[in-house]
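S1.2 Input.
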Amino acid sequence: MLGRRRVDFLISVPEAAKLFEVKQLLEAIARDEPRIERSPAPAIDVAEITDAAVKLHFRPWTTMEHYEALSAQTMERIQQAMASAQLKFCVALQTPAA
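S1.3 Output.
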């Protein structure tokens, strides 16, 4: 996938009961963002389940030229969508090891 890069977000949701709602919000963000590649489709997977939270990987693909702006702006969109839905969360951008 030359010229493309995957953006790796880790989202922690303290309320497991809200998992479906969070996945729907992430799907909507991916669907509405033209800089996110449609193929391969963005992955939204459970990464970890703990006593305190459920952690999700949100992994959309984009072009190299859009990576930096998309990373920052998507974190803002996640924050806005979660706040609008009154969901508690924590989001982090994961960077690959060098």
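S1.4 Remarks. The chain has one domain: 4-94.
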